[in-house]
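Work Package 3 (structural annotation) set out to generate three-dimensional models for the target panel prioritized at the project kickoff. During this period the team completed the workflow that converts sequence records into discrete structure tokens, so that structures can be stored uniformly alongside our sequence database. As a representative example, we reproduce one entry of 91 residues exactly as it appears in the project archive.
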Amino acid sequence: RLLIRPKQFGDGAITSAAIDETWEELHRWMRWAEDRERFTSELMEIRNRHMMASFILRECIELIGIEVSTGTAVVWCGLHDIDWQGRQCDT
């Protein structure tokens, strides 16, 4: 029922829609959610492509969870500041 995968080409629109839908809570709790204008579909597509490059370079891993029956993004998480030697990261 849930597909969890790295972000890929074309995910800009669904990630932007997810941010738009949850903006009030994101803006309240997440430091990065300051300016709603930074999360348009086009800008999210560019950001996702940067995240894809970071994934290939093993710098960070951003995952998106898609509800298979609807195609709706329901989970978005990431592993950042990965220390491969120490086997730890921030999420």
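The chain is about 35% helix and 30% strand.
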